[in-house]
Amino acid sequence: MQETIFSNSQAKNWAELVRDFLSPHSTHDVLKIDFAKQHKGFFVDNTEHGDIPPTIIAERNGEVFAIVISSKIDEDFQARNLSGASHILRHTAGADSLVLIFDAHVRNFDVKNDYEFLKNYKHEDMQLDCDDKGVRDSGTIGDCLVCHRINDKGEISAKTLPYSYYGKGTNFKWTEPDSKHEGAKFEGVVPDIICNIMNEKTFANNQSLMQTAKKYGLDEERIFYHAARVAFKTLREHGFYVFDLLSCKHPEWCDAAKKAEQLILLLSDNEVLPKVAIPNLAKVVSDHIGKPSFQVEVAKIIVKYKDKFAKEHAEIPDDAESFANWLHQACFRELIELIEEINNVKNNVKNNVKNNVKNNVKNNVKNNVKNNVKNNVKNNKKQKWPGPKNERY
Predict the structure, then answer these.
(1) Taking the mean position of all CA atoms in its chain, how far away is CA 337?
(2) How far does Cα 388 stand from its chain's mean position?
(3) Do 197 and 325 sit in the same domain of this protein?
(4) Domain containing 205: what range?
(5) pTM of full prediction above 0.85
(6) What is the mean pLDDT of residues 300-311?
(7) Of 384, 107, 169, 369, residue with least CA distance to 265
């Protein structure tokens, strides 16, 4: 479902935005205001209306470990999406703090008559009037970005960031200083739901699980790592875009090198990558898996062998950095997800070359990939991995 939110090049640019404005160890900006503004700006620059999908930043012990973005922007789904993803991040992954970022509407602070305002605008009226009646032009209601931070102690901090924007071709601007809305009290469905979710127990409260894990030499950090990865997979299956900041910290805990080996051989067997590049890629896997340098080195190899790519995949070297970024993320997925990733690559390329891809062609590709995984990767009958053998940790 990631492809419905970002193209490959947009995903790469957004990942750079995350690295620049959302350090995993950043604690001074608890509401992530700088990131939220850049996040909004990204969608203004890259979409027709500039609306951002509901976004959640998950933290544990003061560190950001994931960013989750809904595939839905429609406000009818907003509370449901935020609550569903928040429940998974809290209950399964053990997040102790969540920052929620989403578009909303706000009463102009200069409108003083509370009674008249509440008389005229009932639940959901602001959304309808803003969209259909142009009330924004009167100055009564405005658009805003809302940032909520809710932790497992029930503490809520929040801020609205009002802005003016009427879609592609118009100017975007923040209309009021950030400080104007500090200290505002936020009530409603979303804060209430998330507060209840943050009171839920997590894996750490499951004594049976913790005792069993200790028997196998697993500490709480290792359990958190695997529990969070289960949460990420579940969220992806439900259509969320997950930016995983955790897995690459310990590639040996999830057999990332072995998966990289399988994935690269699979790509080569399906003529997505040229076979001549395999030895160089094997060395990159050995030396750089889990590090930012992985993408850099893979991109260099793709460009080096650009003349060796099959005709139908000749465009990959034109955006080598995006492909390298995708490849690194895919190395931290489960094997079944790798099969889906290969299908996405092949189908995306086919869709670029041809306007329409027949369903039976897609099915044949899927079947071929599955057979190649079974026959070529698992049994290693077609190619041998030229790099060092990756033992299971």
Answers:
(1) 15
(2) 31
(3) no
(4) 2-248
(5) no
(6) 94
(7) 384
User: Is the separation of the CB atoms in 14 and 42 below 8 Å?
Assistant: yes
* Cβ atoms of residues 36 and 63 within 8 Å: no
Same domain for 240 and 273 = no
Are the CB atoms for 76 and 123 separated by under 8 Å?
Answer: no
Maximum separation of any 2 CA atoms in the chain, in Å: 77
Cα gap 229→54, rounded to integer Å = 21
Those residues whose C-beta lies under 8 Å from the C-beta of residue 16, and which sit 6 or more positions away, are none
Which structure tokens are listed for 370?
């599955």
User: Picking from 33-37, 115-119, 142-146, 166-170, which range would have the lowest pLDDT averaged per residue?
Assistant: 115-119
Hey, how many other C-beta atoms are within 10 angstroms of the C-beta on 261?
26
**How distant, in Å, are the alpha carbons of 55, 102, 201, 256, 317 from that of 224?**
22, 27, 14, 17, 37
Residue 100, SS3 per DSSP: strand
Measured in Å, how far apart are the chain's first and last C-alpha atoms? 31
Q: Write out the two tokens for 97.
A: 């703090």
Q: Which residue has the tokens 């290693």?
A: 380
Phi, psi of 156, rounded to the nearest 5 degrees: -120, 130
Tell me how many domains the chain contains: 2
Asked if residue 273 and residue 239 are part of one domain, the reply reads: no
Among all chains, which residue has been given the structure tokens 């071709």? 169
List beta partners, residue 104.
Answer: 144
pLDDT of residue 343: 62
- Boundary residue ending a domain (198, 216, 248): 248
Q: Please count the other Cβ atoms lying within 10 Å of the Cβ belonging to residue 389.
A: 8
Task: Convert the pLDDT of each residue in 133-150 to its tens digit.
Answer: 455 555 567 788 988 889
Length in residues, the chain: 393
The predicted-structure confidence for 203-256, as pLDDT tens digits, reads as follows 777 777 778 877 777 888 888 998 899 999 999 888 888 889 899 899 999 899
CA atoms within 13 A on the CB side of 288: 17
Is 292 buried (19+), middle (13-18) or exposed (0-12) by CB count in 10 A?
exposed
Backbone angles phi, psi at 19, to 5 degrees: -65, -35
Cβ(235)–Cβ(88) below 8 Å: yes
- Kind plus residue range of the DSSP H or E element containing 357: none
Please state whether 23 falls in left (phi above 0), alpha (psi between -120 and 50) or beta: beta
390 in any annotated domain: no
Task: Measure CA 114 to chain center.
Answer: 39
